[in-house]
Every structure is written in structure tokens, then in C-alpha cells.
Design a protein that fits this description.
Layout lengths: L2 H25 L11 H6 L8 E5 L5 E9 L2 E6 L11
Antiparallel strand pairs: 1-2, 2-3
Length: 90
């Protein structure tokens, strides 16, 4: 195999191996956390107004007292006492 052919094969193999990693990193800004309010927070404020108090179940099954606020153009429940760890997923 010529050097130029070897280089092409190596380059293609490298791109094939790295493409899932590149796609994964590009699709998950913010360390894998979804952007915007979680669906639970949006659902808690359905048919509510800004400033309304609500209670909803968080992603880990915890009960959260919250206030409806507009976030990212959507009305969503923002916990009054957010979890110390930021509430991110494990």
C-alpha cells in the first residue's frame, strides 16, 4: 500500500471512529443536560399565571414547591428552594 493510500485509509477510519463522539458532543450542550425548563415544570404551570404558586414532582420523585415564571418563552415552575446540587440528572 502506498503512503498516500495509507493516509487516506487512516483518515477515513479516524473519522468513522470519532463521528459518534463529535455528534454526541454537538447534540448535548451543557454537559448533557437538556436546555430549557423540564417538562414537569411546564406541566405544573399549565393554565396558571406568572407568580402563581404550585407544587410538582421533580425528576427524582421529590415534591417541589415552586412559583410559575416565564422561562425561555414558556411558563414554567421555578422551585422556591432549588436542590443544592442544581437538580441535574445522575
Amino acid at each position: 500500500m502506498k503512503k498516500s493510500e495509507f493516509f487516506k485509509v487512516t483518515l477515513i477510519a479516524s473519522l468513522i471512529c470519532l463521528s459518534p463522539l463529535i455528534a454526541s458532543a454537538a447534540g448535548r450542550p451543557g454537559q448533557g443536560r437538556p436546555q430549557g425548563p423540564p417538562p414537569e415544570a411546564i406541566a405544573a404551570c399549565k393554565d396558571k399565571s406568572v407568580g402563581d404558586s404550585v407544587t410538582f414532582t421533580g425528576r427524582r420523585g421529590e415534591t417541589l414547591e415552586a412559583t410559575c415564571q416565564e422561562k425561555d418563552g414558556k411558563l414554567a415552575a421555578v422551585p422556591n428552594n432549588p436542590p443544592a446540587d442544581g437538580g441535574g440528572r445522575n
